[in-house]
Amino acid sequence: MTPIVENTPEPARPRHPHGATAAELARALGAAAPEEDLALRGVSLDSRSVEPGDLWCALPGATAHGAEFAAQAAGRGAAMALTDPAGRERCEAAGLPALVVDDPRSATALAAALVHGRPAERLATIGVTGTNGKTSVTTAITRALLELGVPAGAIGTSGTSYRAADGSDHAIATVRTTPEAPELHGLLARMAEDGVEVVSMEVSSHALVLHRADEVVYDVVCFTNLTQDHLDFHGTMEAYYEAKRTLFTPAHARRGVVCVDDDWGRRLAREAQIPVTTYATRPGIDADHRAREHRADGYGSIVEVDGPDGTRTLHAALPGRHYVANTLAADLLLAAIGRTGEDVVQALGEAGTVPGRMEPVAHTPIRGVVDYSHTPDALEQALLTLRAVPGTGRLLVVMGAGGDRDRAKRPLMGEVAARYADVVLVTDDNPRTEDPAAIRAEVLSGIPEGTKAQVHDVDGRGEAIALAAYLADVSDTILVAGKGAETGQQIGGIVHPFDDRLRLRDALRDAQPARGGADDLDEGR
User: Fold this and answer.
1) Residue-wise pLDDT tens digits, 61-119
2) 485: domain CATH number?
3) Which helix (H) or strand (E) holds 110?
4) What domain count does the chain have?
5) Beta-bridge mates of residue 478
6) Exposed, middle or buried: residue 24 (CB in 10 Å: 0-12, 13-18, 19+)?
7) Which residues participate in the annotated binding site for ATP?
8) Which residues are annotated as a binding site?
């Protein structure tokens, strides 16, 4: 299958804007009608991305008010501003008529939806939320649909990509897992304009709290799991759960699919305000669809699923229970939008691996795998999965934790790594503005004294990967965890080129001559 990417990113808005008038927006937002009924062609949140005729949204921020950039927005051709009373004066001083509302952040989504002609209503929409699995599920759905010849797209951590009705492939650079509302509705409008039929989206907890996904009523939404992450933003697991739960209300979705493998999922199945279908992969859990057993099939798995209509067989392209769960989720979500049958099952099985998700970069004499696992639960699942692959010798893991993020999970990550791996190389993830050595120390603090694992504190991610390749022996497996398919490393406010897959592949190749063995390194990137 042709990859749905291309080299030159495209604008996150339609070529032919639907548009709306200022008076229409004022009525919808409950704002005072403007003196001049301007025609608005687009919506922007960032003053640097404004295009002529845009409604520019000047929102209050944690440290500054967006209205401080009103002159820049006006200079780029903004026609009007949407802001709160605190931002009105600065916007008008810059020559921008203002639509003034008390909560401009929540109003931004409605404005964007109206200006772009409510594009979500012209697409079949699937939303996926959960700590882990969002990218894998949305990617599997999109690739399966493309195998079936259905124009489809995905929005999420890896950016935005889609195949148009004319068969052309498109890639649009997006920064956040769930883009801000103006960008999101622009993307949906672009896809609808190009004849896309189905879009699968990752819906983050941040997006739900910050109204990024408002004004999209998904045809079906999915909850994969909830484990510790993002407590720097939410504060508590309860608040984290409540953010996820809002997706399962009539304001956001028509029906849902919920994994009940954990207590949070079982609670959500009870509390959801929309009809839900449940699924489980752990034994002894009651659900509408139960993965009864799975067995290794090469690097993937074959799974038998018991459901209301009997037993069916699915093929997961990647190993491990969590990828069985992701495949079952994708199958149920496709069924919810009317895509069923053996051709769908086959397409899911052939959808292939997801970049940076349990992605093999070498098979023999040493298996090298790169995975995005950056939470304690995800790391545990990845290590358990690789431990269970037939023929696995020792298990070496290169891991760390991101800076400027949830600090509470750092020692938990270290404890999990030492519990399941034979060799642990604690190194730098994306330190961002923090001291890398201090982050490593917090990770290392979770490793108990007397651990049977061989533990290394390695300054520099490239050095850690090279050391892992040097220490590994025939039949061993190296897991490089935390960054997945990212192609940069954030250190001190600068993004340095860095791809775990390339570094691991090269390190293993450099180590091969010393072993005298033939290699089997994956090429093609």
Assistant:
1) 888 999 999 999 999 999 999 999 999 999 999 999 999 999 999 999 999 999 999 99
2) 3.90.190.20
3) helix 104-115
4) 3
5) 368, 396
6) middle
7) 130-136
8) 45, 47, 130-136, 177-178, 204, 212, 405, 429-432, 482, 486
